[in-house]
Amino acid sequence: MTSSPGRGLLHLAAAVDQESAYDAGSHVELARLAERGVLDFVTLGDTFARPGLDALSVLSRLAPVTGRIGLVPTVTTTHTEPFHVQAAVATLDWVSRGRAGWHIDVSTTEGEARLFGRRHAAPADALWQEAGEVADVAARLWDSWEDHAEIRDEATGRFIDRDKLHHVDFEGAGFSVKGPSIVPRPPQGHPVRVVDATEGPARRTAARYADVALVRVAGPAQARALRAELRDSAAEFGRNPDDLRVLAGLTVDLGDGERAAEPGHGGGGPRQTAQGPLYRGGPVDLAELIAAWHQADAADGFHLTPVEPHRDLERLVNGTVALLQHRGLFRTFYPGSTLREHLGLARPANRYAVAGGTS
């Protein structure tokens, strides 16, 4: 079993999903609020299973009106073209100056498949295997431009150093990609890849490719066990397990006033529901819960989903986060400018530059 890296500062993220919200202003407000709380990143969900805005497009709109907060949209790898997906995520990294992530997900229902008419729904195991291949080829395409491949030499008329462009020549089970990408290498090298590893079929993909794994479990012992499993699996794939951040997923209902956590919530652990673990109580007891899980080495941090977005996120930032900062468990300022820097993750070396000895 791999060793634990020890407890450092917490990582905190929040979902900014809003049911039936179609205006940019409300999303801007939530992202800026999360940024005021110095959260690592915000997520915005997306699915073909119900109507809604395109998450990646919405977060691209937020990039120029925020300065530090990471932006992580859900983008499915099912029924989408891997080449286009990686280019869109790379573009988000460019327009946000290195703050992009990608919550990798799959589309499992026949209803979603019928929207495209290309194939029928497939089992989750097969879809997550495909998702892993998409994550793999995305990283290869992000590396297909070496850093400084753009030379923009007006005197010679050369825009690109072609020796620093590479074909990826990827052959997967369901698709092939030659490359190179049409987008230069992103500022982070690789935008941060996030996978919800709660369900078994997704865990292999998370352990092998994710920078951040989310786990939705109701107790610290369960979270600690799943974190250890993911770290061990990452090591088996040849990764340094310390390069994987595991965040506990928790839905939070902070109500309208300070109150003790309801029975089944709070320090003893949230209540498991069909949608995942739910905390219902006040910001103070939520801070105690987070601190207790952190002390137990159950997770590297938390991904919090507010029940009522504006109310709960405001109470989270002004109450829970402030208490955690006071206790020295969470930072009071951003130490860097990129999402990788927020998470304490190094910028990956370019596999083609390293192989060729050009950098």
From TrEMBL:
<dbReference type="Pfam" id="PF00296">
    <property type="entry name" value="Bac_luciferase"/>
</dbReference>
<dbReference type="InterPro" id="IPR016215">
    <property type="entry name" value="NTA_MOA"/>
</dbReference>
<protein>
    <submittedName>
        <fullName>LLM class flavin-dependent oxidoreductase</fullName>
    </submittedName>
</protein>
<dbReference type="GO" id="GO:0004497">
    <property type="term" value="F:monooxygenase activity"/>
</dbReference>
<comment type="similarity">
    <text>Belongs to the NtaA/SnaA/DszA monooxygenase family.</text>
</comment>
<dbReference type="InterPro" id="IPR011251">
    <property type="entry name" value="Luciferase-like_dom"/>
</dbReference>
<feature type="binding site">
    <location>
        <position position="46"/>
    </location>
    <ligand>
        <name>FMN</name>
    </ligand>
</feature>
<keyword id="KW-0288">FMN</keyword>
<feature type="region of interest" description="Disordered">
    <location>
        <begin position="256"/>
        <end position="276"/>
    </location>
</feature>
<keyword id="KW-0285">Flavoprotein</keyword>
<feature type="domain" description="Luciferase-like">
    <location>
        <begin position="22"/>
        <end position="262"/>
    </location>
</feature>
<keyword id="KW-0560">Oxidoreductase</keyword>
<dbReference type="InterPro" id="IPR051260">
    <property type="entry name" value="Diverse_substr_monoxygenases"/>
</dbReference>
<keyword id="KW-0503">Monooxygenase</keyword>
<dbReference type="GO" id="GO:0016705">
    <property type="term" value="F:oxidoreductase activity, acting on paired donors, with incorporation or reduction of molecular oxygen"/>
</dbReference>
<dbReference type="InterPro" id="IPR036661">
    <property type="entry name" value="Luciferase-like_sf"/>
</dbReference>
<feature type="binding site">
    <location>
        <position position="74"/>
    </location>
    <ligand>
        <name>FMN</name>
    </ligand>
</feature>
